[in-house]
Amino acid sequence: KQMRLALITMIALLLLAMPLMAQDGSILLEDDFSDPTSGWDEAEFDAGSIGYGDGFYSVSSTEVAQFMWGASGNSFSNVVIEVETTQVLSPKNGNNGYGVMCRIQENGDGYALRISGDGYASITMIEDGEFVVLVDWTLTDAIVQGDGSNELSVVCNGSNLMIYVNGEFVMETDDDTFTEGDIAFAVTTFEESPTEIRFDNLS
Fold it and tell me: Under DSSP, is residue 6 helix (H, G, I), strand (E, B) or coil?
């Protein structure tokens, strides 16, 4: 088991040196969000909003436990996604969740690999609209807590799902329910106070 984890970690570290790439080495997607017509979702809802800011992509959740996400409008299978995240608004206790989704289906099913403002991380599957915990919220010192920035890297490779934060391995699991789909940025507040996260320099 330790040898398998070491091998997976080595492979992931090699992948993390690359942009969002396909198996043949071609770059799938890069975006600094300076162009508001690059294709990501934009919308205003009662429970939050998704859309472009001034050189970033913003997702906000304004009602308790409302899962807000904005997708790229593409479809990928095996990917490594790196993005800079900045928490600009949050409950005082940091009780929220934000991060990257991969292999999103047309009905919104897929995987959510998230961190929180109070230093936790988790991996969740959404299946038939229901949230299935694959790795429960776990405290890690890799995350910069509070209103600050974190470099989030996620691996969706075969059945393997991984989270790295600021270059440090945080967690991994395996699930083969979904093999391809869109990617997205997701945010949830778990308190009465809203959460807003800005995403930038996707690669």
Answer: helix
168 beta partners: 165
Structure tokens at 115: 């961190």
What's the Cα-to-Cα distance from 195 to each of 11, 89, 146, rounded to whole Å? 34, 5, 11
CA distances from 133 to 42, 124, 125, 136 (A): 28, 5, 6, 6
pLDDT for res 163: 98
- Which residues share a beta bridge with 188? 97
CA distances from 40 to 51, 58, 187 (A): 7, 11, 15
Global confidence as pTM: 0.89
d(Cα 110, Cα 104) in Å, to the nearest integer? 4
Residue 34 near residue 161 (C-beta atoms within 8 A): no
Q: Block means of pLDDT (10 residues each) for the chain, length 203 residues?
A: 46 48 65 97 98 98 97 95 97 97 97 98 98 98 96 96 98 98 98 98 93
Q: In this predicted structure, what is the pLDDT of residue 65?
A: 96
Classify each residue of 15-38 as buried b or exposed e, where b means 16 or more C-beta atoms within 10 Å of its C-beta: bbeeebbeeeeeebbebebeeeeb
Phi, psi of 4 (to 5 degrees): -65, -45
pLDDT value of residue 4? 47
**Cβ atoms within 10 Å, residue 13:** 14
Q: Token match 């997701």: residue? A: 186
